[in-house]
Each structure stands twice: as structure tokens, then as C-alpha cells.
Specification:
- This protein has 22 helices and 15 strands.
- It is of the alpha/beta class.
- The two termini are 49 Å apart.
- Bound molecules: adenosine-5'-diphosphate (ADP), magnesium ion and zinc ion.
- Zinc ion (ZN) binds at residues 435, 439, 493, 508, 511, 631.
Length: 631
Amino acid sequence: MKKKKGPGKPGINFLQHFLSILVFFVLLSFLYTTFGGEQNKPEEVSVSWVAQQVRSGEVEKIIVQGDKLSVTLADETEAVAKKERESSLSETLVNYGVSQDDLENVVIEVKNESGFGYWLMNLAPILFPIIFILLIFWFLSRQVKGAGGMQAFTFGQSKARITDPSKQKITFKDVAGNREAKQELEEVVDFLRNPKKFLDIGAEIPKGVLLMGDPGTGKTLLARAVAGEAKVPFFHLSGSEFVEMFVGVGASRVRDLFAMAKKASPSIIFIDEIDAVGRSRGVGTGGGNDEREQTLNQILVEMDGFDPNEKVIVIAATNRGDVLDPALLRPGRFDRRVMLDLPDRRDREEILNIHARKKPLAEDVNLVVIAERTPGFSGADLYSLMNEGAILAAREERTQVSQFDLIRSIEKVMIGPERKSHLFSPEEKRITAYHEAGHAIVASVLPDADPVHKVSIVARGRAGGYTMKLPLEEKKLQKRAEFLDDIAMSLGGYVTEKMIFGDVTTGPSNDLQVSSRLARSMVTKWGMSDLIGPIALEGNDGRALFGPGVDGRPHSERTESIIDSEVSRIMSEAMARAQMVLTEHRKALDAVAEALLDVETLEQDAYDTIIRAHGIHPKKREKKEDAVKKD
Ligand code: ADP
Ligand code: MG
Ligand code: ZN
């Protein structure tokens, strides 16, 4: 498959076309004059002159071609003349007073007048302008398409860029880190390479994979790598490209895109920045909503219409997973979701190595140090860091990139938009490490808290770090004891900060909000406080069930103060429990915090190893439903 209608270079195209038209016409006029010229050579004479010559016996031969007479005289000279179309030559000559005898001496030859040359000569003056105008229209319409101005001519046709499998050079080797994501996608690659194996055994393959992650974490890169690994055609389109000037274009683009991909199957459709069309309906801006909605619906319809053996897999990417329409996430659509995290120290080193491949590095370059100094940098940041370094070296007329170039580039990239907020000082990093370690240890020790799946101090969103826990089994109903342990775990970060540094930061503010809300719900909604008893005072939205009283307050002052004291009792008991756990397991806490300072992210195995060494038994992991504890 070739790249269709590649974008860009309309100027060059136009020039080429214009020149070829010009050459074409110069050639035509040349032919016209040479061929036409031959017939023009003989002298043009009048019919009466011809008649006179015939009478005086000077004419040897007359060739009649329609109304044209080619006369050959006795002395071999030639002449042409015209007669009336309606009357025959002999009639005409007789009319001019030529006698029958005179005529007999002349050879008269009548030629078929429908020769190609004849028609060309006659029609050319009419046809050429028409052809010319048509050509101009044709080229204009091509121009319009190329320039992407008025879409009147391309309407609906998908604008997807297609990458030939043989030209797709990016593979998983070019993507550092993101091990989980790669694992998940390897399955997809396996299917595209060998669909029969899966279909024979009746396995249903995911239709849609959604890549979610911060900007620059390598979503687009990873999608390309899947195509490169699978060696199948790759249809690449950005969400915003679906929606353009004309209403209804988006939906028909989707239709075309899917039709094309099915024809080329097995193949991959990659919709980048899908939030442009897949934003939750009814959220966000007004105008243009209809168009987006239609486009989104069409995507859903197409994905629902897939046969399991269609062998087309849709990969979508977004950095706003939170605003996506829930309809997109339903089973049978984008039911595989892959999170791409910001890289940790080891990943950063790997990424730097990848991008250092083509750059000559001086001997003093130590990428480990650069990786250590760039927490919070995304893959794209590291890429531009290497690039800035090379630019600095080149500007100073050096042929190798030195460590100093790279260190200066860190700052340059940091000052870039929105980066500063992600970077912490060594002190902040230490606090965050202890904070997260605190959450994790409390979760691991308390019997009814969920086990820890992953601990990280790599900034994600606005949170400083996060501890991910997995519930042992999927539960619909939660027990009071679980809530209490959950609250204690939430407070683990706060307690640790106080214990280790003797002060608290703004870091745990979200922890406090979440746990206070939970404690209040226990008291007011679920009847989990003995003092209030089994009565629901508030509905799910947190508003009073029985309506505000006369003074506009939801509860009586007495009830309110009981609620307050119960909430604060629950909170302080949970805090005491967290404190107890952390004091008892201070060594484990230190060990986890140190490990976090070093590698930034601890997966479950690494984490379990550390706590086991300090006498805490890791909980068994069974169910895969992630719950993320931020801050
Ligand atoms: P996203 O689509 O998530 O915003 P991109 O895939 O466009 O990010 O990444 C931009 C560039 O950053 C890539 O072209 C690549 O050079 C670099 N990059 C990002 N993540 C990685 C990674 N994990 N490994 C190697 N390079 C990366
Ligand atoms: Mg992208
Ligand atoms: Zn926290």
C-alpha cells in the first residue's frame, strides 16, 4: 500500500502540474502547425479560377474532400479551392460554364472526408478550449484537496495516514520502561501476527486498547511500536481530524477509516487524542457537540459491528482518561486499558540511552547522574533534553556532547511549560518517599486493609506520589473494620511525616479530605457509629435526608455536634493505630523509604521482599482491580 495523498507540498505539486500542461500545449500547437502547414502550402484559389483552368485544359487532377478541392495542374503545381458543400463538383464546374468534354480530361477523385486528420482539424478549434477548461478544473480540484482548504471534494474520505508495514521501523526496543503496557500490547501483537491460533481456540481478542498517560509518556510511540512489531498496516488519525468544517464529516470519516482498515486486515487503527471526540457527553463546551457526538457514535457503532475474526484492532490514546465517555469504556469497546506512567529512575536512564544512540557522547557523560536529577521528566522531556544538549555542543563548535551540556539542558527543559511543578528538591523527595512508605506499611500490616500493589514517588498528575493497593477480592459490601483500616492507611502518610520530620506538609491534604469524608459517611450514612445508631442522616449526595430545619441547617445543633465528635473519634483512633504500626515497624518504614529514594517505584515483588525482610508478611494478591491512593 502506498501513502495516499500525503499532506504538504502543494506548491511543488502545482508547479509540476502547471509545467506539464504547458509542455503539453506547446507540443500540440507544434503538431498543429506542422501538419496543418503542409496543407496550407498550395496556393488558395477561387472555384471560378479552377473552372477557367479546366476549360483551358490545364488541370490534370482534382481531389474532392468534402468542400475542399485539391487541384493538380498540368505543370505539377498544386492549388486548393473551396466549393459549396451542397452541390457536387461537376455541377459546380458546369455552372461555371465548363463543358462536359473539358471535364472528361480531368481526373476527379472523391475522398472520404471522415479521416482522423480531417476531423481533428475541424474540431480542434472547438475541442481545445473545452479540454483546456476541463483540465484547469481538474487541477484546481486537486489543488483544493491538497491545500486542505475547502473540503468539498474530499468530503468524508478518511484522512488517515497509512504506514506501510515495511516502513514501520519503530519496535518495542525503542520504547523504554512501561513494562506492563508492553506486556499487555504484546498480546495484541501476537494476535495480529497469528490470528488463526487464537480464533481456532475460540478466544475473543480485544477490539480496543486504550492507552492512558500524561503527555509525553510515549503513547503515540508505543502504538507505532505495536504496528512495527506486528508488521501490519497502521492507520493513524488524530481525534481532532475527524471533526472539521462540515457537519457529518466526522461520522463518514470514521466509516471510511474502518472500511479501509477492514479491507487491509489484519490491521491497526490508531486514534490519537481520542478525547477530542470521546469526551463525556454533556461535559465541557457547548457548540460543536452534535458533530462530536455523531463521530463518537459512529466509532461505537463500527466497533460493535466488528466480527471477532475481523482482525482489526483499534488502539486509542488520551491523556485525559478522566473525561472519556463511559460508553467508550464498555466491554467490547476499549475494554483494555493500559496506563503509561512517568518513567522512574531506571526507565529514565533507559530512555536517555535510547536517545543517545545517534549522538556522539564525550567520555565524561554519565547518564545515570542525569537520570537521577530528572525526576518527573517524561520520555518526551528526556528526548528534548538530549536534543538540547546536542544543540548546545554544536553551537559551541564541539563534535561531542558533554555531561555539562546535558546538565545545562536539564534546566532548559525544566523551565518549559508546567514542568516545574513536578520537580522536587531532595528534601521534598525524601518527605514524599517517607509519606508513601507510611501508607504502604500501614496497608500491609493492618489485617483489613488491601494489599499493596505498587508504591511510587514519581509524580502522577498533581499528586506527589502514590500507593496502589489491590483489594483481595472484589467486594460490593464493605465492613466497618475495612473502613477503619482504610482510614488508618490514608492517615499513614500524615502520621509518618509528623513522626520522621516533626512537621507536616500540605502533601497529605487530599488524604485528610478523603478519610474525613469516609469517616463522616460511616457516621451519617451507614449507621456505623454506636452513638448515632442505625440511622441514615444523609443521602448519597451528602445532603440531609429530612430536609434542612427551620434555621436552614441540615441537622440540629446537638446532632451536628455528635456527628463531629464521632468523626473526630474515628479519625483519632485510626491515627493512633497508624502510629502504633509505624512505630513498631520503623525499620521496615525506613527500608521502604530508602528504596523509594533510590529507585522511585517499587513493584509488588520488590516491595514484598523488603517488608518480608523486616518481618511483615505480605498479603496474597488475587484480584485485579486497581485502587489508587494518591498523595
Ligand atoms: P505521547 O503520545 O504520550 O504524548 P509521544 O509518544 O508522542 O508521547 O512521545 C514523544 C517522544 O518522546 C517520542 O517520540 C520519544 O522520542 C520520546 N519518548 C516518550 N516516551 C518514551 C519512552 N518510553 N521510551 C523512549 N522514548 C520515549
Ligand atoms: Mg501523542
Ligand atoms: Zn498520601
